[in-house]
Specification:
The protein is an alpha/beta fold. The protein is about 35% helix and about 15% strand. The structure holds pyridoxal-5'-phosphate.
Length: about 375
């Protein structure tokens, strides 16, 4: 009988992350509206900075010093409280690993970001899933699941894939209801898409309390998904914990140079935010004129809309129909949402074409 290494049982229980697709079933490249990337691309200043990066033969600055100080200056945060990650994915995993282990519990909401399940299981913790409130976050339900074994609570605000958003008062209520030894991770991957007056107060909470970590990313509005750069901020103790277990050179030379330049181009960020808000409003309004075909776009504060299909046209058929017309979107049966299709907000003509295609399909189904 041959013997081979056995993975830990909790690692075996992980379903690998399913990324948004770039091609259709036949391998054809499609317009990608499946991964919530920035349809406007990347700031020209960031693109130009690629050539200024340190030589590839050299290891990057392990502390991402210039980048952390620029992030700190922009957001009013002491750089000592900022930790960089290879995407915010790395930081979400480090948060779970740093604070939870076998037998501990990690809570997040049903229809939360799929990495939370992986992050919890990776360290042997038990994922505990709070029921949603009509696809949004129910703070009461979340708090009701806290036990002596709870170590970490993950919340994306706005949330992916639903687009739902908890206002400042609800975030404060969630934090106030948690014991001080429970780490609240507020994942703000889409925060820059919010109007400035809609700030959920998470950065202020992370500044004021010892049990809050906020994660952010350069993958979304900054248009740097391919460079894999995220950051997190929390109390000095939390930053030090994550710093101890992160990869030592976890942001590349080009990533550091491009992110630094991207931060300096807030005009691009504002332009992308305004484009997204305008196109999202237009797209949802177009869906609203469809008549009673059972399509329901959930209210979204992010750069995508989750449409629920309750009529004759199914989410699967809409997904396939859009792929035939050249668009790859995100159908979500693997996340318990076979009725849901998530569509990233793209360019104006793309959104017009998608709305028209959905109309044609909905009206065509007998
Ligand atoms: C809610 C949320 N958090 C985190 C991430 C991870 O982003 P990245 O690892 O590219 O920073 C995503 C990406 O889709 C997301 O939707």
């Amino acid at each position: 009988m041959s013997v081979s290494p056995e993975p830990k049982s909790w690692i075996n229980a992980i379903h690998a992350y399913v990324p948004g697709k770039s091609t259709g079933a036949d391998g054809r490249a499609l317009i990608k509206l499946s991964a919530n990337e920035n349809p406007l691309g990347t700031s020209p200043l960031a693109l130009a900075a690629r050539d200024t990066a340190a030589a590839p033969s050299r290891y990057p600055d392990p502390e991402s010093t210039a980048l952390r100080s620029a992030i700190g200056a922009l957001h009013g945060i002491d750089p000592a409280r900022i930790v960089m990650g290879t995407g915010s994915d790395e930081l979400l995993n480090l948060a779970a690993q740093g604070y939870a282990g076998p037998g501990d519990e990690v809570i997040y909401v049903r229809y939360g970001f799929s990495v939370y399940d992986i992050a919890a299981r990776r360290c042997g913790a038990v994922p505990v899933i709070a029921p949603d409130a009509d696809y949004g976050t129910d703070v009461g339900a979340l708090l009701g699941l806290v036990t002596d074994r709870t170590r970490v609570v993950f919340l994306a605000n706005p949330n992916n894939p639903t687009g739902s958003f908890l206002p400042q008062g609800e975030i404060a209520r969630l934090h106030a209801g948690l014991r001080p030894d429970v780490l609240l991770v507020i994942d703000q991957a889409y925060a820059e898409y919010l109007a400035p007056q809609d700030d959920d107060g998470a950065l202020a909470l992370a500044e004021a309390h010892a049990n809050v970590l906020v994660t952010r990313t350069f993958s979304k509005i900054y248009g740097l998904a391919g460079e894999r750069i995220g950051w997190a901020t929390g109390a000095p103790g939390i930053a030090a914990t994550l710093g101890r277990i992160r990869g030592p050179f976890n942001v590349s030379n080009t990533g550091q140079a491009m992110a630094l330049a991207a931060l300096g181009d807030q005009g691009f960020v504002t332009h992308a935010r305004e484009h997204n808000a305008r196109e999202r409003t237009r797209f949802v309004a177009a869906l609203g004129t469809l008549g009673n075909h059972g399509l329901r776009p959930l209210p979204s504060e992010a750069n995508f809309v989750l449409i629920l299909f309750a009529g004759k046209l199914t989410a699967e058929a809409a997904y396939n129909g859009l792929a035939e017309r050249g668009y790859i979107t995100r159908w979500l049966p693997g996340q318990g949402l076979p009725q849901g299709l998530r569509i990233t907000i793209g360019l104006p003509d793309q959104m017009d074409e998608i709305a028209a295609a959905l109309r044609e399909m909905a009206e065509g189904v007998k």
